[in-house]
Amino acid sequence: MKLFGLVQRMILWDLFKIFALAWFSLTALFLMAGLVAEATQQGLSPGQILAIMPYIIPSTLPYTLPTTTLFATCIVYGRLAADNEVLALKAAGVHLGHIVTPAIILGGAVSAATFLMYLDVIPYTHHELRSRFLRDVEEFLYSMLRRDGVIRNNKLSYTIYVKKVDERNLIDAIFMKRDASGGYEAVARAQEAEIRVPAGRKILSVHMKRTYVVSKDDNGFIAEKIFEAELPDFLDTKKWRAASMTWAELPMFREQFQLEADGYLAEFVKLKQKEEQGQSTEEDTKNKRKAEINWKHHQNLAFGIDAEFHLRPALTLGCLCFVLVGCPVGVFFSRSDYLSAFITCFLPIVTLYYPLLLCGINFAKTATVPPSLAIWPANMVMLAIAWFLFWRLLRN
């Protein structure tokens, strides 16, 4: 028993070393190859990129930890099989179930730690990452213009084009403001312009210099002109996405969104009945369409929270599921080299687990399938595969 305890500790220590190295490498690869390249394209400075890294890492844990756990399991148990240590332990009368105990401990510990972080830390950093840039609205808008050369949205009554952004100056800027009929009530083109967001006001102020204006009030060359318009809706830092809500906030927002959806539905039904009776006006028709859009939007937000209740524990349980698959796979393949283990551990993830999970998430968020039936099958399939592999392993 004392010897077996030593073997378990050695296996657990090997698992931890490979797991830590794999997680650090995968996270660094993701940050450097993915985040930095994307952030640079988005117009973020090196200082901004460094500032957001601590907020990015927690959000990646539900995806990097299961992968690295499976990778470490395949490496360690593949090495044990390749060195005939598994065969030696079986010859010594040690049941294979005892050899798997260290991997189950690692998988269970990582799953528990991930779920604990999912309660508050991961949602907080997810929301803080988005809010961090939106608080500095001016810098966010300048980043958009550096990247795209335009601020444009179907919900906005204006469009801004620029040829070049030189620090805080917008070179060759065009401001176009639409009217209620869909045409343009004002079009201005300036040699230089600057964007400002006054403190405490939800408006965008565009200061244009050496400007040619065409509008109902002005027509011709003007030395300086200031246009004011509403800020884009996407700059709202309110928590709309379920991924940004802590575990305690999920039921509160669920109730709030459902109440708002019910209110919009009641308004829609009332206006529809009025329309069927032939008593509706043009304004009623617009309000009916608006109420229908808001009803479906808030209902989908509530469905998203229903899916989140199942998604978080399902993702965290993935660490344990992958461990149970990785142990017999490592023994069967008997490979101690990293490349073979890497390919072996990623095949079930890329081709089976995550496609099933992503499809289930989409079905759950649209209420096509109940969340409990849509999200959990990916884990159930992995557990079924693990049971079959262990059955084959114990038979041999």
List the secondary-structure elements in sequence, H or E. Answer: HHHHHHEEEEEEEHHHHH
Number of strands: 7
Low-confidence spans: none
> What's the structural domain tally?
2
Let me know the average pLDDT. 81
Amino-to-carboxy terminus distance: 24 Å
Number of discrete helical segments: 11
* Portion in helices: 55-70%
Beta-strand residue percentage: 5-15%
Chain oligomer state: single chain
Structural class: alpha+beta
Overall 3D form: elongated
Radius of gyration: 28 Å
Largest sheet: 7 strands, antiparallel
Keywords:
396 residues; single chain; 7-stranded antiparallel β-sheet; alpha+beta
Verbal overview:
There is one protein chain. The protein is of the alpha+beta class. It folds into two domains: 2-120 and 306-395, no CATH class; 145-235, no CATH class. The protein has helices spanning 2-41, 46-82, 85-91, 96-119, 121-135, 137-148, 249-276, 282-333, 338-365, 371-374, 377-395, and strands at 150-151, 158-161, 164-166, 169-178, 184-196, 203-215, 219-230. Strands 1, 2, 3, 4, 5, 6 and 7 form a seven-stranded antiparallel β-sheet that branches. The longest helix is centred in the C-terminal third of the chain and has 52 residues, at 282-333. The two termini are 24 Å apart. The mean pLDDT is 81.
Short note summarizing the structure:
With 396 residues, the protein is α+β, with helices and mostly antiparallel strands. 67% of the residues lie in helices and 14% in strands.
Task: Describe how the helices and strands are arranged.
Blueprint: H1 2-41, H2 46-82, H3 85-91, H4 96-119, H5 121-135, H6 137-148, E1 150-151, E2 158-161, E3 164-166, E4 169-178, E5 184-196, E6 203-215, E7 219-230, H7 249-276, H8 282-333, H9 338-365, H10 371-374, H11 377-395
Antiparallel strand pairs: 1-2, 2-4, 3-4, 4-5, 5-6, 6-7
Helix pairs in contact: 1-2, 1-4, 2-4, 2-5, 2-8, 2-9, 4-8, 7-8, 8-9, 8-11, 9-11
